[in-house]
């Protein structure tokens, strides 16, 4: 039995021939590159404006481009992107930039050097521009008013409105007041600016240095991701330097005296205010409470201190000479067989150790001498900071006590208020009772009067 064919239901007109795809042969004048859309360079003998109908009909536009007109579309826009950080750092505070635009006046189309934004104008330029515009409005209003008067005269109607004149006069007065106020403010601020300039001459170099560093940091911004183990230390040093500069500026504004530390003038050190006040107080106390006997006692003490210093100097010289002699003796008696020579060797070793220590100390003397001018000021600063911290702790304790006292007073006030409210309620209740009693007594009195009248009748 034969099986039915699979495609019997398909009509006989189906094309069963194989599909053949042919590509045309390449020729020399045929290019497979896409047509370029770039404009051709202009030549001296060709003009794109005089395009023929054949070129326009072929779909190619050869009209001239006008970059000046295209540029004029963006002259009125101004974008202020100063101090704006476009990075994606998480720690950076987002700050958007501002855009502003204004319509250009007639006659500014070809002026490329003019100002295209109101934000770049100064106060004086804005006033001058507003005055010019007000004058233009006045002239235009006068011309329009003359035309309206002529038209109304022709129609026989003499009514005219003065609202525009009043508005223009009000604008003129406002501009005059602004100009006068700005001029008076400039005159009044001149002495203050001069005085402030004299006061801040000392810190001008610091401000310039900080501004220059800020400018360089804004101009040359670099982002580096690296491991820096000494970042915290440098950050702490920067904080300490900032605190030191702030303390020096505060002391300068308070009005401290010049530093009395030797060598401080060379290192540009600043003496803190608290030690200066303490020394000044001690000097004033000495001057106010001194007597000839006390001055003599102080002079004797100073003389004794000088003698002790001289004695110490002599002892130091003697000890130096003795160490040198012992070292020389140990070198000459070296190699002896006797027992005292061994003890001498021990003494020589001890003296050599002491000599090495003394030499090490003498080696550090230049460093100590260089640091000597710095130590008093550093100690004064440390004492000042300790006093500031102590005062801050006391102030915080006193503030806590004041806050606690305020809470107690607030609680007492609340209790007094509650008591006063209760007393007021009791007084109101007593007033109501008294009013009722008065009414009852009045009724009784009226009844007695009526009875007395009846008895009299």
Order of helices and strands: HHEEHHHHHHHHH
Q: What is the 3D shape?
A: extended
| Estimated helix fraction | 55-70%
What's the mean pLDDT score? 70
- Sheet having the most strands: 2 strands, antiparallel
Class computed from helices, strands and strand pairing: mainly alpha
> Which segments are poorly predicted (pLDDT under 50) over 5 or more consecutive residues?
36-52, 106-118, 257-267, 334-340
| Cα distance spanning the termini | 155 Å
**Number of helices, where a helix is a run of at least 4 consecutive DSSP H or I residues:** 11
Rg estimate, integer Å: 51 Å
Strand content range = under 5%
Write down how many β-strands occur, each being a DSSP E stretch of 2 or more residues. Answer: 2
Q: Strands across the major sheet, in which order?
A: 1-2
Which descriptors would you attach to this protein?
mainly alpha, Dynactin subunit, 2% strand, 457 residues, 11 helices, single chain, Dynamitin, cytoplasm, two-stranded antiparallel sheet
Structure write-up:
With 457 residues, the chain is mainly alpha-helical. Helices cover 66% and strands 2% of the residues. It has a domain at 115-187. The chain contains eleven helices and two strands. The chain is extended and about 135 Å long. The model is unreliable at 36-52, 106-118, 257-267 and 334-340 (pLDDT under 50).
């Amino acid at each position: 039995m034969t099986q039915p064919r699979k495609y019997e239901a398909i009509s006989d007109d189906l094309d069963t021939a194989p599909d053949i795809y042919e590509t045309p042969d390449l020729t020399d004048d045929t290019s497979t590159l896409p047509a370029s859309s770039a404009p051709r360079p202009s030549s001296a003998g060709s003009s794109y404006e005089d395009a023929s109908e054949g070129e326009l009909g072929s779909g190619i536009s050869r009209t001239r481009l006008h970059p000046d007109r295209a540029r004029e579309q963006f002259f009125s826009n101004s974008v202020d992107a100063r101090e704006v950080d476009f990075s994606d750092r998480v720690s950076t505070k987002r700050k958007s930039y501002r855009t502003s635009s204004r319509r250009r006046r007639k006659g500014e189309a070809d002026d490329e050097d003019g100002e295209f934004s109101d934000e770049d104008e100064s106060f004086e330029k804005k006033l001058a521009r507003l005055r010019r515009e007000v004058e233009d409005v006045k002239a235009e209003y006068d011309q329009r008013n003359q035309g309206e008067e002529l038209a109304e005269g022709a129609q026989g109607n003499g009514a005219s409105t003065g609202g525009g004149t009043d508005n223009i006069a009000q604008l003129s007065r406002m501009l005059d007041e602004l100009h006068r106020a700005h001029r008076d403010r400039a005159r009044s601020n001149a002495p203050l600016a001069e005085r402030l300039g004299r006061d801040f001459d000392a810190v001008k170099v610091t401000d310039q240095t900080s501004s220059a560093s800020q400018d360089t940091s804004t101009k040359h911004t670099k982002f580096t991701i690296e491991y820096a183990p000494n970042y915290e230390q440098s950050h702490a040093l920067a904080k300490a330097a900032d605190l030191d500069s702030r303390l020096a500026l505060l002391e300068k504004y308070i009005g401290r005296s010049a530093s009395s530390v030797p060598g401080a003038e060379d290192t540009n050190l600043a003496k803190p205010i608290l030690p200066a006040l303490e020394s000044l107080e001690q000097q004033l106390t000495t001057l106010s409470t001194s007597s000839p006997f006390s001055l003599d006692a102080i002079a004797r003490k100073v003389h004794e201190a000088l003698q002790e210093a001289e004695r110490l100097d002599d002892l130091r010289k003697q000890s130096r000479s003795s160490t040198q002699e012992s070292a020389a003796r140990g070198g000459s008696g070296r190699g002896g067989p006797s027992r005292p020579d061994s003890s001498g060797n021990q003494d020589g070793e001890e003296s050599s150790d002491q000599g090495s220590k003394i030499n090490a100390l003498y080696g550090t003397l230049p460093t100590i001498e260089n640091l000597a001018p710095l130590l008093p000021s550093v100690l004064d600063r440390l004492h000042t900071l300790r006093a500031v911290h102590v005062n801050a702790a006391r102030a915080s304790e006193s503030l806590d006590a004041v806050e606690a006292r305020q809470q107690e007073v607030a609680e007492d006030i609340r209790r007094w208020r509650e008591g006063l409210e209760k007393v007021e309620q009791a007084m109101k209740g007593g007033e109501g009772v008294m009013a009722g009693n008065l009414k009852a007594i009045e009724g009784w009195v009226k009844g007695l009067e009526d009875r007395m009248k009846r008895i009299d009748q």
